[in-house]
Design a protein that fits this description.
27% of the residues lie in helices and 27% in strands. The protein is an alpha+beta fold and 353 residues long. The two termini are 36 Å apart.
């Protein structure tokens, strides 16, 4: 990964953007897209688009990664000034214990700490119970309701204060790798293809609201009417203690892109992705999805006339935590694979199963 692309990825990661509150990070993505694409746009759902135009009569290929992340939203401020929150997306409440939360407010960033009764004060039976989110509060140091309301408001959204960490080799850890990495890859595909333009029109999309509704994928697919739509997301690696390889396959960080097979996946797209990987010498893994992929592809296939859908994923450890962990090399090979797949599409391509 070159220095400029890495700097862009780090900027995406550090910028907050829970589902429904993606405005700031989407702007970062569009600023970079403006240096690469023929046309950059956004819609009312908050989706961002970066077009690489070919012949107007040629079909369109959509490559998409959702740009939202999981977070927390203030639901109530009590008389003592403590904040009570609910999840944006799916949280394991256990990982929130002891974390710091940064809220994005009209007055700027406000940081608080997740509070819970100290273990010394718990009954022995309570120590063995899994904590629930409704039992946790966020302490911003306010002395009262009135004091808290000068700094935050009900409805403000927050993220866990977890920054970029380089572990060993090219392994990195942070919050929001799900799925800023996908949004980064989508734009990287455009960057690669701009050097040698394909037959088709290509649109990279940084979609919103995947973690709560797939809303951005529905509207983006309807708006662009693609022939093929590739969702780029993270998937569960199984190279850590306790992982279930019998359920999720043998997937390792650094093992390359993971291709999905299942009900939401067009078989011709899958076959062509395999051909592209084989012809370019890219290692890849495969995971099954017998009912749904739980990615934006599940929305894409139901939007408009229904494009031929595929999913290319980044192996990830510790998903939906403050320390999601990936290999940077997998990001590069994901982008290279999708670019090779797009270049193989010509006027004779037929994706009907």
């Amino acid at each position: 990964m070159n220095e400029n692309s890495l700097a862009f990825l780090k900027n995406l990661i550090k910028t907050p953007g829970p589902s429904g509150f993606e405005r700031r990070v989407a702007s970062v993505w569009r600023d970079e897209a403006g240096r690469i694409a023929d046309e950059v746009d956004r819609d009312l759902t908050g989706n961002s688009f970066a077009w690489l135009r070919s012949d107007p009569a040629a079909p369109t290929v959509l490559v998409e990664g959702h740009i939202d992340e999981i977070g927390l939203q203030i639901m109530h401020i009590d008389d003592e000034g403590y904040l009570w929150v609910d999840e944006i997306g799916g949280w394991d409440a256990q990982v929130l214990l002891g974390q710091r939360i940064v809220f994005d407010t009209k007055n700027g960033s406000v940081t608080g700490v997740v509070g819970r009764k100290a273990i010394h004060l718990m009954e022995s039976a309570d120590r063995e119970k899994a904590v629930k989110l409704k039992e946790l509060w966020v302490d911003i140091g306010a002395s009262s309701l009135a004091d808290a309301e000068t700094r935050v408001a009900v409805g403000d959204a927050g993220i866990v204060d977890s920054s970029w960490l380089e572990l060993n080799g090219d392994l990195v850890s942070s919050r929001a790798l799900d799925n800023r990495t996908g949004a980064w890859i989508a734009l990287e595909v455009v960057r690669i293809l701009a050097q040698d333009r394909p037959f088709v029109n290509v649109v990279a999309v940084a979609a919103t609201q995947e973690e709560v509704s797939f809303g951005g994928a529905y509207t983006a697919t309807f708006k662009t009417s693609p022939m093929v739509a590739i969702a780029i997301d993270v998937t569960h690696a199984t190279d850590y203690p306790g992982a279930d390889k019998k359920r999720d396959g043998d997937i390792a960080l650094g093992g390359g892109p993971v291709l999905c097979r299942g009900a939401s996946i067009n078989p011709i797209v899958y076959d062509r992705l395999v051909d592209a990987a084989t012809s370019t010498g890219i290692r890849f893994g495969v995971q099954g999805a017998p009912r749904a992929t739980w990615t934006d592809a599940d929305a894409m296939i139901k939007s408009g006339s229904g494009p031929a859908t595929g999913v290319v994923s980044v192996p990830t450890r510790y998903m939906h935590s403050p320390n999601e962990t990936i290999s940077l090399a997998d990001l590069d090979t994901c982008a290279a694979l999708i670019a090779a797949f797009v270049r193989q599409i010509d006027s004779e391509a037929d994706f009907r199963p």
